Amino acid sequence: MNTLKAVRGTRDLLPPETELWNRIEATARSVFGRYNFGEIRTPIFEDTQLFARGVGEETDIVSKEMYTWEDRARAQSEKAQSLTLRPENTAGAVRAYIEHQLGESGMLQKLYYIGPQFRRERPQKGRYRQFYQIGAEVIGPPSAGSESPLRDAELLEMLAGLLDELGITGWKLLINSVGSSTDRPRYIAALKEALKDLAPTMCVDCQRRAETNPLRVLDCKVPEDQPKIESLPRIADYLDEASQAHFAAVRAALDACGVEYEISHRLVRGLDYYTRTTFEFQHGGLGAQNALLGGGRYDGLSEMIGGPKAPGIGFAIGADRLVLTLEAQAGQVVPTLADAYIAPLGDARNPDALVLARELRRAGLRIDVGDGSFRIKKSFETGNKLARNIVLLGEDEVQSGMLTVKNFASGEQTKIAREQLASALTAPHE
Ligand code: HAM
Asked: I need a labelling partner for 412 at 20 to 30 A (CA). Which of 34, 210, 388, 399 fits?
């Protein structure tokens, strides 16, 4: 029989790497808390229409990367519903905002999420079919200040702080403005016009994109096409006064708090809902998939999916890519050692070992327990791999209440009274 394996593009996350995942998630939660965000958890699958209308039919995500299936109809007369594993979380968050009338409070909604997303992309380093995002969205009625450039700058300042706090070095922030819903059609018309002559000389993907989604031409990575793309009209020249002022205000606030950035006029991003500010944090260590995170403003998304006017801005971090970056920086993740490994001497001591372990665990220590059938040599070898100390538990120790403890690092062996054991085993730096 064939051995079953995880499906292509999916993978198991195992200890000790999962410790790094947990540390990243805990740091993100802590930072989001300090910026007064609350957590939202939306379903893993949604009605396909949500992504078709929200993310956009012409995007790569919707046109070729979604895991979509027909649900079973409940009754014969009913049409089967088309469902999709979420490829991203912004559309789901905005759907929830509309469904629960969160805008009625008149307040900004500041929501963060951590969870798996699914895209049927070609797997490679840093690109998976099930991947994990840590994201946040700020949405609300215009009266709550949701359109303010302060929101954009605050989010970017928070992200720079989060990456610093995680210890990621060498990141680069790229920003752009893709204009309002009135600027963009003017720009796209100009782009189409310029591409009429140019596109036939470009790569096949660009030829297709010039027809279906001309903005995507700016994303092309083919070296020969680069000078041609540089000669195309730039979005900055098509922003109206209000959009220009908005972008200038975002930059001024970033300058004020010393967040460094580069303006990239080609940063259009792969989802259709963006308006005005778009951004990406990149990291050179990631190779081809160099975007650590991406996001932007989506002032029209709520209306696109049938909701009230609710401008918003948000981002999603590729958690898999954060892990890759931190691993490359710090080397292999070392497993956390237990405070002690309890070695019962003989099968009869197994219940005593469990009692002692319970005492120590309830005192907050990380404890592993061996087995009375192990020879003493095996207990020491196993203990040395798992813990900083080994506690020997024979009949003498149980009777006398004095336990034999060996510290692996110093090689020192001592007798410690049971009541003092928990504090003696606690690492001095903890
Ligand atoms: P996105 O650029 O499609 O934006 O994805 C955000 C991040 O998710 C990327 O920068 C990357 O780090 C990670 N990512 C995307 N696809 C994969 C993959 N196949 N494997 C591993 N990592 C991946 C969004 O998803 C928007 N919803 C972000 C947003 C929130 N915009 C506004 N609010």
From this structure: 399
pLDDT tens digits for range 86-142: 999 999 999 999 999 999 999 999 999 999 999 999 999 999 999 999 999 999 999
Please tell me the predicted confidence (pLDDT) of residue 118: 98
Q: What is the CATH number of the domain that holds 382?
A: 3.40.50.800
Distance from the alpha carbon of residue 89 to the mean position of ligand 1, in angstroms: 9
* Domain of 299, in residue numbers: 17-180+239-330
Does the residue 197 lie in any domain?
no
pLDDT of residue 427: 65
φ and ψ of 239, to 5 deg:
-80, 135
- Of 330, 365, 387, the one marking the end of a domain is 330
- Evaluate whether residue 297 is within a structural domain: yes
- Same domain flag for 67 and 164: yes
To test the pocket of ligand 1, the residue of 173, 219, 321 to mutate (highest count of ligand atoms within 8 Å of its CB) is: 321
What is the Å distance from ligand 1's center to 86 Cα? 12
What value does the mean pLDDT take over residues 72-80? 82
Domain end call among 296, 330, 364:
330
Q: In this structure, are 104 and 32 located in the same domain?
A: yes
Tokens of 353: 């070992």
Averaged pLDDT score across all residues of the chain: 95
Residues with a CB atom less than 6 Å from ligand 1: 88-90, 119, 121, 126-128, 131, 133, 135, 137, 270-271, 291-296, 298, 314-316, 318, 320-321
- State mean pLDDT over 52-72: 93
Q: Two tokens at 23?
A: 């540390």
Q: Are residues 252 and 374 in the same domain?
A: no
Kindly report whether the global pTM for this prediction surpasses the value 0.85. Answer: yes
What atom of ligand 1 comes closest to residue 126's alpha carbon? 21
- In this structure, is residue 199 part of a structural domain? no
In this structure, the number of other CB atoms found within 10 A of the CB of residue 123 comes to: 14
Alpha-carbon dihedral sign for residues 99, 105, 109, 115: negative
Domain CATH for 274: 3.30.930.10
Three-state DSSP at 247 gives helix
**Which residue from 131, 156, 276 has its CB within 8 A of the most atoms of ligand 1, so it is best to mutate?**
131
Structure tokens at 261: 């950035």
Residues 6+ apart with CB under 8 A from 370: 341, 342, 343, 344, 353, 379, 382, 383
